[in-house]
Design goal:
The protein is of the alpha+beta class. 34% of the residues lie in helices and 23% in strands. The protein has 3 domains: 3-51 and 205-285 and 383-431, 3-Layer(bba) Sandwich (FAD/NAD(P)-binding domain); 86-198, no CATH class; 287-379, Alpha-Beta Complex (Polyamine Oxidase, Chain A, domain 2), CATH 3.90.660.
């Protein structure tokens, strides 16, 4: 292929598209990114409100998210996160802290000494962890997480206080629907290799600043272009590649990476019949929401830890942005997966969450609140869900996104992995 035709278009500037473009730029492959919005980051982006930089959803990373952390290292933003050894706590009910020992001993001893559980359940959890390790974290046939826990006697308090919160945090799918195999893949990578893989990694800046903004500078410095507020309307296959059309222009490219959310990708596939198999899989997806409720309290208000679990109400996790982002008094509460909360106004939701926090932490009334709901935050990671590969049936056309096949739930790490893989496939095709 002639040098002038080696031009790559990346549609979508979420974490998948940014990861792909960054890797291509590092390999001196000309790349142009198209983003329909004004802010980079996709479903993990910064939001300005009342003079404070929030996120459209609170995210956490794990030490096992090697591709994401590697990208951050490469562009010099690793200090934008707070890294904490594994510690999970539900005030007044449960606490697990992993000691500084090699994996998996740190988890086993953490389970043995966990507070809030009878000794019999702690022993049962240890046997369960050892059994998973002997199984190689592989199931002969996928089942739901709820079925897996029931099969191994983990559906009591240990299920409610440990395994269910981990499942919701990782898969954003109810346990009776969630894929046990995908859940085991996360447990394998987090708990069975290096101790640091189980670290909790909390952003200290907004999500756009965490990776996309810094990566964008690297991409531009290496000759890449980023067009924001530019929605691709149509893609046509041409003799030498593809023509992309937007509201006031069009351009030809040799390769295309579609890195939009799956529901936004479907209209772009309509002119490309070779993508029908991928479109068919996407059309079968169901989605799960995530709500983030920000509550600003007086500056002296804070939590004993940066992140705490909650049980018995709608709130599942609460984060202290005073400890992480340097915004005193700002708490962020997460509600994962569908539920009754979806059917009430934001004002009532915030009031209920504030009441739940007040009961646990004896907090005053918040000064203000902001409710952000992503109705299609992730695909539902259900048993047997088929996901399209990054390489499609159309030559030089690739898919990137947390919804593509990775063996991982729809997380930032899954998105980054898909983008890195697409960049590698393009680099390989160009070198051949």
């Amino acid at each position: 292929m002639a040098e002038e035709l080696r031009r790559v278009a990346v549609i979508g500037c979420g974490f998948a598209g940014i990861a792909a473009a960054l890797k291509l730029a590092e390999r001196n492959i000309p790349v142009t990114l198209f983003e329909a919005g004004k802010v980079l980051g996709g479903r993990a982006r910064g939001v300005d409100y009342r003079g404070v930089r929030l996120d459209n959803g609170q995210h956490i990373l794990l030490g096992a998210y090697h591709e994401t952390l590697s990208l951050m290292d490469g562009i010099g933003v690793r200090d934008a996160v707070l890294r904490l050894p594994l510690a999970l706590s539900v005030p007044g009910q449960f606490a697990l802290r992993a000691p500084a020992l090699p994996a998996p001993l740190h988890l086993l001893l953490g389970l043995l000494n966990a507070q809030g559980l009878p000794f019999s359940e702690r022993l049962s959890a240890i046997r369960f962890a050892l059994r998973l390790r002997l199984m190689g974290f592989r199931l002969a046939q996928d089942i739901s997480v709820a079925s897996l826990l029931a099969r191994h006697g983990q559906d009591g308090n240990i299920g409610r206080l440990l395994w269910e919160p981990l499942c919701l945090a990782a898969l954003n799918t109810p346990m009776d629907q969630a894929s046990a195999q995908i859940f085991l893949n996360v447990l394998r990578d987090s708990f069975s290799h290096a101790r640091s893989d189980s670290d909790l990694v909390l952003p200290r800046v907004d999500l756009s600043a965490l990776l996309p903004d810094a990566a964008a500078n690297h991409i531009r410095n290496r000759g890449g272009k980023i067009l924001t507020g530019c929605r691709i309307r149509r893609i046509e296959a041409a003799d030498q590649g593809f023509t992309l059309h937007w509201a006031d222009g069009s351009e030809n490219f040799s390769h295309v990476i579609c890195a939009t959310a799956p529901q936004h990708a479907l209209p772009l596939f309509s002119t490309l019949p070779e993508l029908a198999p991928a479109a068919g899989l996407i059309q079968k997806f169901s989605y799960q929401p995530i709500a983030t409720i920000y509550l600003q309290y007086p500056e002296q208000v804070g939590l004993p830890h940066p992140m705490l679990g909650l049980s018995g109400g709608w709130a599942q996790w609460v984060f202290d942005h005073g400890r992480t982002h340097g915004i005193p008094g700002l708490l962020a509460v997460i509600i994962s997966t569908e539920g009754a909360w979806q059917h009430i106004p934001a004002e009532q939701m915030a009031a209920r969450i504030a009441a739940e926090l007040a009961r646990v932490f004896e907090l005053p009334e918040p000064l203000w609140h902001k409710v952000i709901v992503e109705k299609r935050a992730t695909i539902a990671c259900t048993v047997g869900t088929e996901r399209p590969e990054q390489k499609t049936g159309l030559r030089n056309f690739y898919l990137a996104g947390d919804y593509t096949a990775s063996g991982y739930p729809a997380t930032i790490e899954s998105a980054v992995r898909s983008g890195v893989k697409c960049a590698g496939l393009i680099s390989e095709s160009i070198s051949n």
